[in-house]
Amino acid sequence: MSFKGKRIVITGASRGVGYHAARLFLEAGAEVLGTGRDPERLRKAASELKALGAFTPVVADFFDPAAPKRLAEAVGRQWGALDLLVNNAGVQTYKKDWMAEGVDLLERQLRVNVLAPHELTFHLLPLLRNGDEPRVINVSSGAGTRQALIETPDMPTYRLTKYTLGGLTILWAGELKGAVAVNALDPGWLKTDLGGPNAPGEPVDGGHRVLALAALPFEVSGKFFYGDQEIRF
Ligand SMILES: NC(=O)c1ccc[n+]([C@@H]2O[C@H](COP(=O)([O-])OP(=O)(O)OC[C@H]3O[C@@H](n4cnc5c(N)ncnc54)[C@H](OP(=O)(O)O)[C@@H]3O)[C@@H](O)[C@H]2O)c1
Question: What residue numbers bound the domain in which 33 lies?
């Protein structure tokens, strides 16, 4: 797979799925601007990623509502165009059901998992319109399908934010039909800080699934994938 010369933004590139996607895209010839919240962790990741190719680190904390617009401005200064936005940064709190989770978690998780991807897509749109077969990949979760909501009561707030991200993907895909491809991805259950040590998959598997989706024909839009396999939302 070659992504030679592609200009790619990956949020949450300091560890986990985002780090591995950044690594694989750089190895495939892309230029990557990757974000992290923790400056020290991003600095360490950047020192490894810069050894592979053109990697630019930008600190962005999506709990800050001003962060998406600021990030879009930085991308504009860097390239003036964008070929792929990977909305990957995400947060998850785990409790067994709604009553244990209470009502306070929703606003913070919505901010990072839904509002930041929405605002980034909005603010980066002029740059995406200047891009080459521009795309947006929203990293969702198998935990955020309708079926998962019906069958599984744990971590309901997280599930709801990912279900909402799926809806956001459909709406943006409709709005941008023919101009920007917008799809959602389940990266699989993986041994990252978020996925935990019992997950069956490795973080790099998620990176490969991001690249597999990014390599699909440009006409594919408004769908939910596990790698290059379409799944039910
Ligand atoms: N791992 C799984 O099993 C699994 C399964 C399904 C879906 N997903 C989804 O895949 C995506 C990546 O997950 P992961 O497992 O790689 O997670 P992870 O290892 O916990 O990494 C999360 C990344 O997001 C960044 N981030 C977290 N909070 C942020 C904030 N408030 N503002 C900006 N950046 C923030 C982190 O930056 P810092 O390093 O600076 O904190 C880090 O780069 C998420 O959207 C997640 O929901 C994961």
Answer: 7-230
